[in-house]
Amino acid sequence: MDIASTGFDYDELEGEYAGVRRTDPHIAVRLREFLGDAQSLLNVGAGTGSYEPQDLRVVAVEPSKQMRALRSSQVVPALAHFAEDLPFAANAFEASMAILSVHHWPDLQRGLAEMRRVTSGPVVVMTFDPNAPTDFWLKDYVPEMHAVEMRRYGPIERIVQGLGGADVHTVPVTRTCQDAFQAALYARPEWFLRAEVRAAQSAWSHLPAGVEARAMADLANDLRSGAWDERYGHLRTAPTVMCQLRMVVSQG
Ligand SMILES: C[S@@+](CC[C@H](N)C(=O)[O-])C[C@H]1O[C@@H](n2cnc3c(N)ncnc32)[C@H](O)[C@@H]1O
Q1: How far is the CA of 103 from the centre of ligand 1 (A)?
Q2: Which of 149, 185, 221, 229 is within CB 3.0–4.6 Å of 233 for a Cys-Cys bond?
């Protein structure tokens, strides 16, 4: 398998990824609850190491060379493997997690089966449910995004099935969320106008040519004229909003 076959080439990533996509403390607390009392943890599609609890024995796998290079000295070095082919024995880990990664996997079912195979306890998959209701306004500027996200994420039931049954939990996203995925910026529309922020959000690269530029021009105009604030300004102070972020938790 090749990293470019995963749909967004993290090896081409430049600039500020680690600064834009940081561990959000609220999400980290929720995740920690689901990991229970596990002592060993496999992080699949581990990226720069966000959300890896410091008090667990962590093994991280990450296929992108560039992502592995962006990991700080505070986290373990990641091994170069794909989710679909994990080189570990059955039940080698007490818990495992895949954080905002499964939508990149060429073979979702095989990757999930691999995670379940190597884990004796909880498997936690953090992802988005593109069918869930949301207050996030970006769709009004980029109506094309829904089709893109449906194609990439698909129905969340596929993940539940791939894990052999799981519970789906809503994850609240707060106004100051430190992990700047798109919905995390519901109260900070100006962030979208920064190219380095969008570069750390893979969805943009899947849109038809010209859509991103058009949407950003419209957003910039509306922010200048005050139209954005008239329509959505109440969200600037909303502590949380209805979002599509989910944790899918399969118990061992
Ligand atoms: C949005 S990043 C998330 C990184 C990290 N989990 C985090 O929360 O910051 C998605 C990651 O999934 C990785 N990835 C893509 N295809 C993969 C695959 N088939 N198996 C494992 N990881 C994969 C990418 O290289 C990338 O690092």
Answers
A1: 9
A2: 229
